[in-house]
Amino acid sequence: MKQREQWTSKIGFILAAAGSAIGLGAIWKFPYMAGMNGGSVFVLLFIFCTLAIGLPILLAEFVIGRRGQSDAVTSLSKLAPKSKWHWIGWMGLGSSFILLSFYSVVGGWILSYLGRALLFKLDLTNYSNLFNTIIANPVEVLIAQAVFMMLTIWIVQSGIKGGIERASSWMMPLLFIFFIVLAIRSLTLEGAMEGVRFLFVPDWSYLNGKTLLMALGQAFFSLSVGVTAMMTYASYLSKEERLGQSAFNVSILNIVISLLAGIVIFPAVFALGQSPAEGPGLIFVILPAIFNEIPFGAFFMIIFFVLMLFATLTSSISMLEIVVSTGIRSKYNRRKQAAWLFGILIFIVGIPSALSFGLLADIQLPGGTFFDFADMLTSRFGLPIGALLISIFAGHVLTSAQTKDELRMHPFLHSAWKFIVRFIAPAAIVIIFIAAFF
């Protein structure tokens, strides 16, 4: 029987963990949320909340995962035998399953745009109409979703070393390079400094409770905590690696990518007189229109959608890995079969979400369409409840001796972390959870 794999290097783990966190949330949602909440003040609060609240919960997942050295369900069962805490793992599996079922739909949209860009078949006159046409076409969205899931399955089936770590080790550096190229191009546009001021010069009139709540929510979700993804990744980590340093590096990478996304988008949006608060249209409608109006726009558009594909894939492989890791348990020789089995099941479950803007657009569930309902189940329930329980488990169930053994940090820092995961983080999550309904 095969032995459980481990990351071959610390940087490989950090890049994979950062890739899990850095997806559409950092590249699409962060600029959109910043645009809706005053820009720079939101950015400052987001950075504070990421380091003060998100980082401790991320570290809690790392501690549980490496301590258990197995999938989330088994790890929690080992650490709290004869209890119900292992249900956090099952909840994470369910959330990841549903999350990937509609996340893969967006991945398919990106593939559709990238394919058109590569074949020079993008409609250069009406991007809004193009977007609506793509998402309403049942054949195209299902084929694109299937291709995206096949890419995800192909990476995960190859294991930690040959699949996830190898893919993340070249996709993440390329993502940084592409972002820097796009940021430089965006900053050279006439009138770009207005976007820079929006992003970095504070308008203190937006410093209020609502902006804080939005920033806290963005920090929480952008770090990919609550679905046991980071717990699963940390279970493949050797005992020699320092968890605190790894968690800090992942958090900083997430902040840097989010800021780069803002630097790419806001200067270009303001330079061409567009609104920064356009939601999904910021990527699929406004940005292609912007690329169409600048020199070498077709080239930069291809780079952007390749970047989007990388970011989406690095998140999707972590979601599928949660399901596969739990499914195979200690039977590591069954990884390939499990990856294809669960990947196909996720694709099937995601079909209603893919058809939510076409054939099934008239069917309404709580929260809206099938796509909206799946999003609501995970973002409003699965992730915040999962993160709350993880924080409570790390703060109240794990002993100080166990956490000290895993963290190996200064006693003051350990005490500060323990206080945050015991009291501050749960309170913050409850506030976000309640705010989602009011």
UniProtKB/TrEMBL annotation:
Chief location bin: membrane
Membrane topology: Multi-pass membrane protein
InterPro entries on file: Na/ntran_symport (IPR000175), SNS_sf (IPR037272), YocR/YhdH-like (IPR047218)
Keywords per UniProt: Membrane, Transmembrane, Transmembrane helix, Transport
Keyword ATP-binding: no
Coiled coil regions, renumbered to chain: none
Protein name (Swiss-Prot/TrEMBL): Sodium-dependent transporter
